[in-house]
Amino acid sequence: MYGTILVPIDGSSTSTNAFECSVSIARATGATIKVMFVVEPVEYELADEDSTVRSAARRRGREILSSVAESGAAADLTIERDICKGVPYQEIVAFAESEADLIVLGTHGLTAETGPGSTIQRVLSTVETPVLAVPPDTSLPDDGPRCILLATDGSESASQTTNHALELAANVGSTVDVLHVIDETNPALTDPSQPMNELARQGGHDLVERLQTAASERQLPVTTVVTRGVPGMEITSRANTVGADLIAMGVRGRATPSEQLLGGTTVRVLRQAEQPVLLSR
Q1: CA-CA 20 to 30 A from 243: which of 37, 145, 220, 281?
Q2: Residue 12: which CATH number?
Q3: In this structure, are 92 and 115 located in the same domain?
Q4: Which residue ranges traverse the bilayer (predicted)?
Q5: Alpha-carbon distance 278 to 171, whole Å?
Q6: Cα(129)–Cα(222) distance, integer angstroms
């Protein structure tokens, strides 16, 4: 399923968590892990100072990559290392589009206090490769996720993620819980007695039934639920209720304005989730 997993590392604890999650996925799928450290451009420095700063950054990068590679080697995995120079999200996207089947990336790095940070937002809005976003203090079981919560609104982005999530579940033997949330913040759906709500409810059931069929065709244990509420809150609550190890959802929903990098629900889930989140455009 995955031949190469790209893991950008910047020395933050969140990027270390991301690497540990990639080890779990690689164990389950037999993938090679490519760890990358990006030396960012230095602005407003003299030539000699610029060279010194870059040399120090490269030394730090080598030390960080050596440390994570050793832990991966102990797990009997193939770990490749690369140090490159450039803008982080651009380097991540360039490598991923040519060589990676999955990106595993912390929700924020050293310069952001809470996620999602600017790098992961730009990656998610640009790259076609699926991304496993890893919030702080989250992890996966050693042999991959045992339960995947698949949240869907029927958007193209959610459909793309569904394909990746079901393939991952089939490879590692996960159970799948399919969730559709009728968004009660939508002005057209505030009154449950109105005909529009019945149409939304029926559409939600039709959607989860199609995904249930897709999961069953892969011989995956699957449960489904359609509920009303605020989507971000319902997704994280359901993930905790069913004991999901991983949440899968789209980067952008049906109602996301074109100028936004990420959908509002996606941002809320990335801030609140206690599990890694699989995302695709």
Answers
A1: 281
A2: 3.40.50.620
A3: yes
A4: none
A5: 15
A6: 25
Are 218 and 170 in contact by the 8 Å Cβ rule? The answer is yes
203 contacts 176 by C-beta, under 8 angstroms: no
Number of domains in the chain: 2
What is each CA distance from 91 to 8, 86, 130, 153, in whole angstroms?
10, 6, 16, 31
Question: Taking the CB of residue 258, how many other CB atoms lie within 10 A of it?
Answer: 5
C-beta of residue 277 within 8 angstroms of C-beta of residue 246: yes
Name the residue range of residue 79's domain.
4-134
CA distances from residue 186 to 153, 155, 157 in whole angstroms, order as listed: 13, 16, 20
What pLDDT digit, counting tens, does each position of 1-13 carry? 899 999 999 999 8
Asked if residue 188 and residue 77 are part of one domain, the reply reads no
Q: Which is nearest to 266 in space by CA: 254, 223, 202?
A: 254
What confidence tens digit (pLDDT) does each residue in 199-215 have?
888 999 999 999 999 99
Query: What 3-state class would DSSP assign to 184?
Result: coil
Specify the 3-state DSSP secondary structure of 28: helix
pTM: 0.91
Separation between Cα atoms, residue 85 and residue 82, nearest integer Å: 10
Type of residue at 85? K
Which pair of tokens denotes residue 87?
């803008």
Task: Please report where in the chains the tokens 């997704």 appear, as a residue.
Answer: 235
